[in-house]
Predict the structure.
Amino acid sequence: MEELLNINYIPFQEDYKEELLDMVMSLYKEDPDGAHMTPDKIERTIEFLSSHPGAGEIVLFTDTHHIAGYAILINYWSNEYGGTVLFIDELFVKKKYRGKNVGSDFIQHLIADVHDEYQSIVLEVIPSNEQAMRLYGRLGFKTASNNFLRHSK
């Protein structure tokens, strides 16, 4: 019999900082095609989003008193879309919670509950992450026709 989860979405809280740091580092360790991650980058993200709440938020997925995962959501205005876009910068579910609809339920929550505020929800997936590509495809995401280019320092 499959375990029934009661997942809630709460804003990041300092009490969970170390656990968030561990999850972010795990995400980048599991997906080595991504950028190099450091604790300093995570600290700067927490600090920035805490002092600029309109720019986005860190959401924790909780199962009673345990953290099951997190998402970093970024808001920005798009002339192309004619309004605000919600960018799912990162989404991570701990291994013990995978395959239990935690990630897909969160995405469906975003689509149903906050999509009225946004013209579009976008995300970036590393091509080698086929499992994520299938998940997002099932949830109605389509590959954009334009290329995502980056210039980094």
Q: What stands out?
A: The beta strands are 7-11, 56-63, 66-78, 83-93, 120-123.
